[in-house]
Model the fold of this input.
Amino acid sequence: MSAVKPSAEFEAFYERHWRYVYRLCFTYMRSEADAEDCTEDVFVKVLNGGFTFTDETHERKWLTVTASNLCKDRLKSFSRKNVDSLDADDAEEPAAPPPKEDYSDVREAVLALPAKLKDVVWMYYYDGLRTDEIAAALGSPPSTIRNRLKDARERLRHLLRNSGYGDAFNP
Amino acid sequence: MNNIPDDLKKTVNTTDNAGSERDGALIRDAFDSIEPREGAKSRMLANILEKAAAQEKPAEKNTRKPLLSRITLITRWALPVAACLAIVVLVALKSRILPGTGTPVPTGTGGTLSPIPDTNPFKEYPSSEALRAATGLTISAPQGSEDILYASVWDNIAEVSFTIDEKQYVLRASKLSDDFSGLYGMEISSETADTENGAKLVLLRDEGIDFLKIVWAKDGVNYVLMNTDGADRDALLAIYRSLK
Done:
């Protein structure tokens, strides 16, 4: 195990994960400036927190949970126009993106999900974690995670119904 | 769920609602298409170092008092502080030395659920009996349940999840005194569900979504029954009554 210090070790850590953390933050914040700000704050936590990690998988899990929580707190702290809020009711009927023929349809659909569903979608599909691993990371029962994944898939299917991916995310 | 490789099927099962490999690839491509602005990498690194330095600076600004006044401060407060500490230590020792006095403090790895565990805390079991053998806790799903799964969390929380009328429920049991439900949210309302067990029906709200749980204690074990996919209070109460 090694502690991350403001040194070549930290820069190597940053090099491994900066793009991943940025992408995750952008998924929540949907703004390049805010995503950069949140990404910076995540790494500041690493620098000043003196955390130790057992391996890169442990690093990734820690970064995922920390970045998700930080972004959700940031979204709660100020009102935002034209960006999804944490209140699921606001996102009940998001507008379907215009039909396109590349995977940007899927990106826009994922970005339109409520913040509460984004972390399980990210951890399940991007990090490849099982639902019980996601449940452990988030401290929630596995059944809650499965329900959220099911909810996310239904919303994605609805959002993509007019796109070239209309047959995706079927039950 | 067709044409899924066997190794993927291990993690993709019907209760997972996991979807196809193609869906996963679509989402991974969607996330990978998010690219930072030009220069973001170096710009963010510079800002990170600056922010980290700024957070450490306030500690360096504290001026130290002159030596004489620090010595006076120490002698003035040292004895009372030492006396208080001695009392605390004695009380703590007493509660451990004399059996039956006070509630034992849970020790071991299960005091709180670590958000980033190094190992998976969930272990599945094939039956209620196997779960009891592992945890010492007895729980089971009500009659008429489907999709029954038994598991332990950090070996000191017993859990059974089950489906009734297309709603998914989780029942947990533990000797822990803290909230071990895993549900987070603001408590909206609480009502007595059963005076016999001190059961309470609690409505929680988290990010606009409502959850129901019933908490009660019996024979030194704490229980929580919860639902997160829209079961109403009557359904939850009916299940509680069949379990108690």
Observations:
- Chain B has three domains: 1-62, 66-102, 122-243.
